[in-house]
Amino acid sequence: MRKDIIINSTPHEVRVAILEDAEPVELIVERADARRIVGNLYKGKVTSVKPGLQAAFVDIGMEKAGFLHASDVVHGGTGDDDDDEDGGDDRRRGRGDPVPDIAETLKVGDSIVVQVTKEPISTKGPRLTADLSLPGRYLVMMPKGRHIGVSRKIADRRERVRLKQHLQQHRPDKGAFIIRTAAEGADESSIRTDVRYLSDLIQTIREKTQEVEAPGLVHQDVGLVVGLIRDIFKEDVEELIVDDNEDYRRLTEYARFFAPDLEKRIRLYSGDLPIFDHYDIEPEIKKSLDRRVWMKKGGYLIIEPTEALVSIDVNTGRFTGRRNQEETILQTNMLAAREACRQLRLRDFGGIIVIDFIDMENEANKRRVLQEMRTHLKRDRARTKVFSVSGLGLVEMSRQRVRPSLLSQLSDTCPYCDGTGKVLSLDTLGNHIERLVHRIAIVTGEKRLQIQANPVLALYLLEERPEQFREACRTFDLELNVMDDAALHIEDFRIVSLASGKDLIAEFEKKARGGRR
Fold first, then answer.
1. Domains observed in the chain
2. How many CA atoms does the CB half-sphere of 402 hold within 13 Å?
3. What tens digit of pLDDT does each residue of 345-376 get?
């Protein structure tokens, strides 16, 4: 499988696409007015302690206070030889160690140095930890603790031992380390360089902490572009192609210092077309905002993000297959498993995900589909967990959520439907208006009425409802006309008095309330 990284930079936005066999699987967007804060260190001030939640809220100088759980306050731990290279939740919780009582650990007004682990999402502030971790090219350093861990993705036992021996020779007296996956095959000199870089960095952070008043920024993580070469640009990447001269200079300088063997793989794009058009990435970005995702052979997915979870529904669509029904369903589900994994990475959905595959009778086929999902999710940089098929035939899984999804970054809630995707039908609105005309005529006694409505609704009333309104005019001796008003929402309308110009809906509601007393 060929892997490439494509970077498009403008003064207002940086976009990064990760391609696998020329197909986009990840898209990261960073805008000038919304720089990422994951990895940043702040000197914060505790604003409230919630014993019931075993958590504290910490002001780090942002719009919303950060959330700090008791398990993330202090740890350091002893760790073991098998770690997540990002210093993940298992390490922070100490793998079974008791969680300290938050009320005994922190008080309102306390200053504390914290690191952002999750971006603010929706109504939630950033997720914080006091168990700091500083990533280098080959190592992650945790100032608290003493253990050495090795990424579980480095499977060879002799390589794990070799790397630990190199690190033992050069590690400082204080601090724990995790050897990252990128260190596989690295020589002693590379490990030593990373140790020096991280040791100098933590010393700078300690000095800055003494100077900064809470709340304030202590350390800003490297930007998106340089962070890529540190975290993603590894031996399995064929090329990193960038269209900005300054980014090219920074990337080659960083590679020359930390990964000189990769410098030759960095290339400055000089084509005539915009870089994302040249690599057919722009159409994929547009598709990533669609509910319906077409697959090869005619099947499709319907992807629906909600507040609680993301649902994915699998459909055969136009695919009928050449064999029996079970074989057709299996082929569709296998394609869907692969595409669902790609879409989750591309759209960066996190939290709970429920996939409704097409029902299969054969248990072996169900296991094949699950295995296909797990195989493709191994490529995902986010932590994932897939559960067995439920009694209703659903596959439940979870995916680590670090930042807002691509959909929330690239779109706003529709001001017309308020994000529901639905508005009341014209028939429903017509029936409602007809009933209101009857009630207003009875309660207010007005004889000359005008309905003011959106042009679409007004045209519907004139063309589809003339007989009903003529009947109302005969019954209540009314003069009634319809006028369009483009400023009105399609669901909004007014019924006014032609004699006085009064809003008759408001008057009717007032009199109706009075009559019920």
1. 3-32+229-282 (3.30.420.60), 41-220 (2.40.50.140), 291-409 (3.40.630), 426-516 (3.40.1260.20)
2. 16
3. 999 999 999 999 999 888 899 999 999 999 99
